[in-house]
From TrEMBL, chain A:
It comes from Spiribacter onubensis. Keywords: Cell membrane, Membrane, Transmembrane, Transmembrane helix. The keyword Transmembrane applies. The keyword Repressor does not apply. The chain crosses the membrane at residues 21-40, 251-275, 296-329, 349-370, 400-420, 426-448, 469-494, 703-723, 744-776, 796-816. Residues 20-224, 472-626 form the MacB-like periplasmic core domain. This is FtsX-like permease family protein. It comes from the Bacteria. Pfam families: FtsX (PF02687), MacB_PCD (PF12704). It is found in: Cell membrane. Residues 254-378, 707-821 form the ABC3 transporter permease C-terminal domain. It is a multi-pass membrane protein.
Length: 830, 382
C-alpha cells in the first residue's frame, strides 16, 4: 500500500514538472542564500582583517616599560621561557638629515627573524633579498621605501649623511624596497643591532610587539609584572579600523537573518504539496487510506525535493557567492578584496545551516499542510474555498502569535543586559514580524476594498491578492524579511559612516598633527603657532596613570583662550559640561571609560597625584571610538598645576582660512628642522584615507543587496506561479466573459505588484527596527559605544522599489502564460 | 511526460549558466602556485666565499664535549635527532627535531649590540602519528644572539627559542633531555635520551668526504642507538612513550659538488641489535656518486664503514606530493651482499614531506626482510 502511495506521489510530482521544478528551485535558492550570505560575510570579515593589518600591522599588544624602554633580556625570556612565538622587538629613534635643513626621519630597528607574522611594509626578509645579510652584518646599513628614497634622492649603494644625537653619522643604503602606498614615509629601516648601536641604545628596546589573544596577554602581564606592562597595540593611528571590528557582530546577525529567510522560502515553495494534493487526498481518504500513510507519502516527496534542492543549492550558493564577490571586486577593483575573496571556503557552520534549511526545512514545511490535509474530512478536502477560509483563520491566529512573539522579543531586549539575549530578541522580532505578514495583507485588503468599489479590475486585484493567502502569505513574509535586511543593513552602514565622519572631524579637528619620538616642547609649539598661515595650535600630552582599578589614560589638552575641545559631548549638554571643565577641577571621560567604570556626569573620579588620591568631578561624557579602554580628558592648565610634566606628545596645527596647505606643510617641516624624528601628518589625508578604508570595507555588503533581490524574485516568482497556475481556470472564465489579454496581464501584474508593495511597506518598520537594534542595542552591549542613527529616505525607498520590481518581474512569466491560454483547455481545468 | 515548459527551461538554463560561469571563474583554478621552496642541495653546494670559512679537509681527532658544541667558523652545522616511539597501547609515533646553524659570513667585526651576530639558526620539528596517519611539522628561524638560539658546552645545551636539547651532566652528552613544542601546529615532545652504544665516527675517523674535491666534505659522527622515554603530543593529545632514537652530528662548509642533486639517507635500527646507516648521493645525471657511503654498527658498538660498492639501493614505489608535485621513492630494497642483508625499507606513512622553506622528505620507516627493524629515511633534491 505504502509503495503504491509512493508511486501516486511520484506520479503527481512528474505530472506537474513545472511546480516540482519550482519547488526544487525554491529549496535550492534558499540553501544557496544561506550559504552565500555566510560566504560573503566571511569575505567581508577577511577584507576587514586585511585592511586592519595593512595599516596597523598585525600586532595586537605591546610590551612597554618606563621612559628608558624595555630591557632586551625580557625578549629572550618571552621566547625561551614563556614560549611566546609571535613577538618582535622594536627600537626606534629620531634622526635628522645631516644637511642644513635637518629634515627629521625615524630610524626603525627591527629583527627580520621575528618579523614574519607581523607583515610590516619594510619588515619581512622576503622584500630585502640579498640585502638581508648585509643589514644583519653591518652597523651602518639601512633600507628605505621607494617613495622615501626618491624624496631623499638616493639609491642602493649610496651613502646618506645623518645627524644622530647631535653627531654626524654616515649610513649606507643597502636596499630600496617597493612601497606602493608610501607607508614608510620618513622611515629608515635597520637591523635591530645596528639601530641600537646607531642610536646609542644598546641593551634597551622601545617596545616588543606581540600577536596574542587577550587571555594570553593578561597571563603575560602577570608574568612580567614589575618589569614591563602589556598594552593594546596602536590605538592611536587609524582607530577607525578598530571600530570596524564592531561590524563582525552585525555580520553574524545577518547570517542568522539569512537562515530565517531561507526557511521561509522553503516553507513558501513546499507548502504547496499538501495544498495541491487535497483532492487526491480526499479521494484516497474516502477509499480508506490511513492518515499516517498519506502523511508519510507527502513527507517522503518533500524530502525528495529537499535533497535534490539542497544539493543544487550548495553548489549554487558557492557559485553565487563567488560570482557576487567577483562583481563587487570589479566595481571596487581592490587588491585587499582580491586577497580576501581568494580563499572563500565553505565553513562547517554554513554547510550545516544549508543542510538544516534544505532538508529539515523541506520536511518541516510540508508537515503542517500535510497534517492538515491528512486530517481534513474527505469531503472538505475536495473544497478549495474551505482551504482559503482556514488560511485566513490561520493568518489571524498567526497575526496574534506574531504580535506576542514581537512583544516577547522586545521584553527580552528591554529586561536583559547581555549580548545573547539581544540576539534572541532580534530573532524573535524577525520571526514575529514574519508571522504578522499575512495579517498585514488582510489589513491592507480591508483598507483597499472600499476604495475599489466600482472598479472591477482593481477589485479583482485586491481580492486576488487577499483571497489566496495560503499561497501568498509565506511569500510576502519571506520577501519582507529579505527587504528588511536590505533596509536594515543600509541604514546601519549609513549610521555607522555618519558617526565615523563626525568623530573623525572631531578628533582630526586640527589640519596637521606633529609628533616626535622623543616628545615636543612648548617652545616648539610657540614657534609653530607663530608661523604664517597658522591660526592656533593645540597641545596634547598622553600619560598612563596607575590606579587601583588598572591604568588610566589621561589626555591633557591645551588650547588657546576661546577654543573648546573638539569632542562630541553626549551627556549633559555641551555648555553645561564645558563650563566646569574649563574652570574647576573637573574632567571629561570617554564613553567606553564611563561604561567600564559606571560613571555618570556629576560623579567623582579619583586619580593619583604625587602618590595621593585626588577626586575630580566628571563634567561630561564624550564619544570616542579610538581607545577600547577609554580615556580621561583634562584641561592642560589643570594638568600642569597638578603634575610636574611639561612635555608634549603631539601638537595640532589649525590652519588659517587662507593658508595654502602645500606651503604650510613646507613651513612646518622647516620649522621642525633639527627635531629628531619629527613627523608632520596631514589630517585631511588621514580623513580621506579613513573613509576610503571604511567604504572599501563595507563594499562587500553590496553583495547582500543582490542576494536579497534574488530571494525576493525567486520567492515571489514561485509563489505567484503556483498561484497563477492554480487559477488558470479562473483566468479562462475571466477571458470568456470579456477580459482582454492586456487586461488579464494587468490583473496578474497588479496582484503581484500589490503583494510586492505590501511586503516592501511592511519591511520598512521591520528594517528600521532591525537597524535600530543593531545600532543601539547590539553595538552598545558588545562595545560600550553609541552611534548616531542616520535614517535617510534613499535606502528605504530602494528597499520598497526592490520588492515591487522583483514582484513585477516575477509576474512576467505567469502573465505571458495566462495571456496565451487557450480558453477551452483552461475551462476544462487541469 | 509532458514537454518541459520553455519558460522554465529558460530559467533553469540561466541558473545553470550562472553556476557554470561561477565554477569556471572561481572554482576550478584554485590550485595556485605553490610557495617558493628551496632545494637543500642548492643551499649546500659550494659558493664563491667558501674559502673564507673554515673547511673540513681531512681527519682530525674529535674532542668532547667541545665538539658537541658549535663550530661557528664552518658554514653549516646540525644536531639531528630522529626516532621511533611507541605508546603503552601500541600506538606508534615518529619524531624529528633538528637544529641547524648557518654562518652568514666567515667573520664579523666587533660590534656594540648584543643582537649583532653572523649566525642564523633554523629549527625543524616534526611528529608523525602513525595510528592517525598524519605528519605535522613546524619550522622556526632565530638569530644566534642574546641567548635566543645557540650551542654551549659543560653542560651541552643547544637551543632555539624554547626548543632545547640539554645534557643532564656537565661532561657527558647523555643522558640528555629533548624538549620542543609548537602550540599552533599542536605537536610536542619531552623526552629523555640515554646512549645504548657509544658514538661512531663516519667516513675516515669522522672525515666524511662527499665530493670529488677533498674539501667538499663534512665532519660527521653519530649516536646510532639511543633509548628514548617520555611524552609526545600530537593534535594536543599527550601520550607517554618509549622507543629508540638516533643522533647525527655534522658540520661542513661545502658538502656537495656542483653535479650532485641530493641524497637518500637511511638510519635503520634492526631488532638483532645492529644499526645500519647508508646514504646515496645522487648526481644530476641520475647516477649514484661514488662518494656514497655508510656504516654498520654491531650490537656491542663495534662498527664497519661501508663504501658505495658495499650496498645497493633500488627504489620500489614512488609517492607524489600533492603540494609540491615532487615524486619521492617511499619504498626501497636495500642489499648488503657481504653481510647477507636483503632488506625491504618502506615508509610507515607516505606523506612525511617537510612543509618547510627547504623542502625534503623525512620520515619514519619500517624494515623487513633478512632482518626486521625501524628507522628514519631522508630524501632531498626531488
Amino acid at each position: 500500500m505504502i509503495r503504491l502511495l509512493g508511486r501516486i506521489g511520484r506520479a503527481d510530482l512528474r505530472r506537474h514538472p513545472l511546480q516540482t521544478g519550482l519547488a526544487m528551485l525554491g529549496v535550492a535558492i534558499a540553501v544557496a542564500v544561506v550559504v552565500a550570505v555566510d560566504l560573503a560575510n566571511h569575505s567581508a570579515r577577511e577584507a576587514m582583517r586585511v585592511s586592519l593589518e595593512s595599516v596597523t600591522g598585525r600586532a595586537t599588544h605591546q610590551v612597554v616599560a618606563g621612559p628608558d624602554g624595555v630591557d632586551e633580556a625580557l625578549y629572550t625570556r618571552l621566547r625561551t621561557e614563556l614560549g611566546v612565538r609571535r613577538a618582535a622587538p622594536v627600537v626606534q629613534g629620531g634622526v635628522t638629515l645631516g644637511d642644513d635643513r635637518g629634515r627629521p626621519l625615524t630610524l626603525l630597528g627591527l629583527d627580520a627573524f621575528a618579523e614574519g607574522p607581523f607583515q610590516r611594509p619594510l619588515g619581512g626578509g622576503d622584500a630585502l633579498g640579498d640585502a638581508f645579510n648585509t643589514l644583519l652584518l653591518r652597523d651602518d646599513a639601512v633600507a628605505l621605501g621607494r617613495g622615501e628614497a626618491r624624496r631623499l634622492g638616493v639609491s642602493t649603494g649610496d651613502t646618506l649623511d645623518l645627524r644622530i644625537n647631535g653627531r654626524p653619522q654616515p649610513v649606507t643604503v643597502v636596499a630600496v624596497v617597493d612601497d606602493p602606498d608610501d607607508q614608510s614615509r620618513g622611515l629608515l629601516l635597520a637591523d635591530i643591532a645596528a639601530a641600537q648601536s646607531l642610536l646609542g641604545q644598546t641593551g634597551r628596546l622601545d617596545r616588543i610587539d606581540l600577536i596574542v589573544d587577550d587571555a594570553r596577554a593578561e597571563a603575560l602581564a602577570t608574568q612580567l609584572a614589575g618589569a614591563a606592562r602589556i598594552v593594546p597595540a596602536a590605538a592611536s593611528a587609524q582607530s577607525v579600523l578598530q571600530m570596524s571590528r564592531a561590524f563582525h557582530i552585525n555580520l553574524t546577525a545577518l547570517s542568522l537573518l539569512a537562515v530565517v529567510v531561507g526557511a521561509f522560502l522553503v516553507f513558501n515553495t513546499l507548502g504547496f504539496l499538501g495544498v495541491r494534493r487535497r483532492p487526491t487526498i480526499g479521494i484516497l481518504r474516502a477509499m480508506g487510506v490511513q492518515r499516517r500513510e498519506i502523511l508519510l507519502q507527502i513527507l517522503g516527496d518533500a524530502l525528495l525535493i529537499g535533497i535534490v534542492g539542497t544539493l543544487i543549492g550548495l553548489g549554487l550558493g558557492f557559485a553565487l557567492a563567488h560570482g557576487l564577490v567577483g562583481l563587487v571586486l570589479q566595481t571596487v577593483n581592490d587588491v585587499y578584496f582580491e586577497r580576501a575573496a581568494g580563499d572563500l571556503v565553505l565553513s562547517p557552520w554554513s554547510l550545516a545551516a544549508g543542510l538544516l534549511v534544505g532538508l529539515v526545512g523541506s520536511v518541516g514545511a510540508a508537515l503542517a499542510p500535510a497534517r492538515e490535509a491528512a486530517a481534513t474530512p474527505p469531503r472538505a478536502a475536495l473544497s478549495r474555498a474551505d482551504l482559503e477560509t482556514r488560511a485566513r483563520q490561520l493568518a489571524r491566529r498567526g497575526g496574534w502569535s506574531g504580535a506576542v512573539v514581537v512583544l516577547l522579543g522586545g521584553a527580552v531586549i528591554a529586561l536583559s543586559a547581555g549580548l545573547i539575549p539581544a540576539f534572541i530578541g532580534l530573532f524573535a522580532l524577525i520571526l514575529g514580524a514574519a508571522l504578522l505578514a499575512p495579517a498585514v495583507i488582510l489589513a491592507v485588503g480591508g483598507i483597499l476594498r472600499p476604495l475599489m468599489r466600482g472598479r472591477p479590475v482593481g477589485g479583482l486585484i485586491v481580492e486576488g491578492a487577499v483571497a489566496s493567502l495560503s499561497r501568498t502569505g509565506v511569500a510576502v513574509a519571506a520577501l519582507s524579511v529579505a527587504v528588511a535586511a536590505v533596509i536594515g543593513v543600509a541604514v546601519m552602514i549609513a549610521s555607522f559612516r555618519a558617526s565615523v565622519i563626525d568623530w573623525l572631524e572631531g578628533s582630526l579637528a586640527a589640519d596637521f598633527y606633529i609628533s616626535a619620538p622623543a616628545g615636543l616642547t612648548d617652545a616648539q609649539a610657540d614657534r609653530l603657532a607663530g608661523l604664517a598661515g597658522v591660526d592656533f595650535v593645540s597641545r596634547s600630552q598622553w600619560v598612563d596613570l596607575a590606579t587601583a582599578d588598572g591604568p588610566v589614560t589621561v589626555w591633557a589638552l591645551g588650547l588657546p583662550a576661546g577654543q573648546s575641545p573638539a569632542v562630541d559631548i553626549r551627556r549633559p549638554a555641551a555648555d553645561t559640561a564645558l563650563e566646569p571643565y574649563a574652570n574647576d577641577r573637573a574632567v571629561l571621560v570617554s564613553e567606553p571609560f564611563a561604561a567600564r567604570r559606571g560613571l555618570a556626569p556629576g560623579d567623582t573620579l579619583g586619580l593619583p597625584v604625587d602618590g595621593r588620591r585626588v577626586d575630580f568631578d566628571v563634567a561630561g561624557i564624550y564619544r570616542d571610538y579610538a581607545s577600547p579602554t577609554g580615556a580621561v580628558l583634562m584641561r592642560r592648565g589643570l594638568y600642569l598645576e597638578l603634575y610636574d610634566d611639561t612635555g608634549l606628545a603631539g601638537i595640532g596645527v589649525h590652519a588659517g582660512d587662507n593658508a595654502g596647505r602645500a606651503g604650510l606643510i613646507r613651513r612646518l617641516e622647516s620649522a621642525l628642522g633639527g627635531v629628531p624624528g619629527a613627523r608632520v601628518t596631514d589630517n585631511a589625508a588621514v580623513f580621506e584615507q579613513s573613509l576610503v578604508i571604511f567604504d572599501r570595507t563595507f563594499a562587500i555588503t553590496e553583495v547582500l543587496r543582490w542576494l536579497a533581490g534574488l530571494v525576493a524574485f525567486v520567492g515571489v516568482v514561485s509563489a505567484l506561479m503556483a498561484l497563477q497556475l492554480d487559477r488558470l481556470r479562473e483566468f479562462a472564465v475571466l477571458r470568456a466573459i470579456g477580459l482582454g489579454r492586456g487586461g488579464l496581464a494587468g490583473l496578474i501584474g497588479g496582484q503581484s505588484g500589490l503583494l510586492g508593495l505590501i511586503a516592501g511597506l511592511w519591511a520598512i518598520p521591520l528594517g528600521i527596527a532591525l537597524a535600530a537594534l543593531l545600532v543601539f542595542v547590539i553595538n552598545r552591549r558588545a562595545y560600550g559605544w553609541t552611534m548616531g542613527f542616520e535614517l535617510q529616505a534613499g535606502p528605504v525607498l530602494e528597499g520598497v522599489a526592490l520588492a515591487v520590481i522583483a514582484a513585477l518581474l516575477a509576474a512576467l512569466y505567469p502573465a505571458w502564460r495566462a495571456a496565451r491560454l487557450r480558453l477551452a483547455e483552461g475551462l476544462k481545468g487541469e | 511526460m509532458r514537454r518541459m515548459d520553455p519558460g522554465l527551461l529558460g530559467l533553469l538554463g540561466l541558473l545553470l549558466g550562472a553556476l557554470i560561469i561561477g565554477g569556471v571563474r572561481f572554482g576550478l583554478d584554485h590550485a595556485g602556485p605553490a610557495a617558493e621552496a628551496q632545494n637543500l642541495a642548492e643551499v649546500m653546494g659550494p659558493t664563491a666565499d667558501a674559502d673564507a670559512f673554515a673547511r673540513v679537509t681531512g681527519p682530525r681527532p674529535l674532542e668532547f664535549p667541545a665538539d658537541h658544541g658549535a663550530h661557528p667558523d664552518h658554514r653549516t652545522e646540525w644536531w639531528y635527532f630522529t626516532g621511533n616511539l611507541t605508546a603503552a597501547n601500541g600506538d606508534a609515533y615518529g619524531f624529528q627535531l633538528t637544529l641547524f646553524r648557518s654562518a652568514l659570513a666567515p667573520s664579523m667585526a666587533e660590534r656594540d649590540s648584543d643582537w649583532a651576530t653572523r649566525q642564523a639558526w633554523m629549527g625543524h620539528f616534526a611528529v608523525t602519528d602513525l595510528a592517525a596517519g598524519e605528519h605535522r611539522a613546524a619550522e622556526r628561524y632565530q638569530r644566534g644572539a642574546l641567548g635566543l638560539a645557540g650551542a654551549s658546552v659543560r653542560p651541552v645545551r643547544v637551543w632555539l627559542d624554547d626548543w632545547t636539547i640539554e645534557s643532564t651532566g656537565p661532561e657527558a652528552l647523555f643522558p640528555l633531555t629533548l624538549r620542543a613544542e609548537d602550540r599552533g601546529v599542536g605537536i610536542a615532545v619531552d623526552l629523555t635520551l640515554t646512549a645504548d652504544k657509544p658514538h661512531v665516527l663516519q667516513g675516515d675517523a669522522g672525515y666524511s668526504r662527499k665530493g670529488a674535491d677533498p674539501a667538499n666534505a663534512s665532519r660527521y659522527y653519530s649516536y646510532t642507538r639511543l633509548a628514548a622515554g617520555g611524552e609526545v603530543a600530537f593534535a594536543d593529545r599527550r601520550t607517554s612513550v618509549s622507543g629508540t632514537a638516533w643522533l647525527d652530528r655534522e658540520w661542513s662548509t661545502s658538502a656537495l659538488d656542483a653535479n650532485q642533486q641530493g641524497w637518500d639517507w637511511f638510519a635503520l635500527q634492526l631488532e638483532d641489535g645492529r644499526d645500519l646507516m647508508v646514504y646515496r648521493l645522487r648526481r644530476t645525471d641520475g647516477g649514484t656518486d661514488p662518494n656514497s657511503a655508510g656504516i654498520l654498527v654491531d650490537p656491542d658498538g663495534g662498527s664497519r664503514v661501508l663504501d658505495s660498492d658495499d650496498f645497493r639501493l633500488t627504489p620500489q614505489r614512488h609517492w607524489q606530493s600533492p603540494r609540491t608535485g615532487s615524486r619521492y621513492p617511499v619504498a626501497w630494497r636495500l642489499q648488503l651482499p657481504d653481510e647477507g642483508l636483503d632488506l625491504q625499507v618502506e615508509a610507515r606513512l607516505d606523506d612525511q614531506e617537510m612543509p618547510t622553506t627547504v623542502r625534503y622528505w623525512e620520515g619514519s620507516v619500517a624494515v623487513e626482510g633478512t632482518a626486521d627493524g625501524v628507522g628514519y629515511l631522508e630524501m632531498t633534491g626531488y
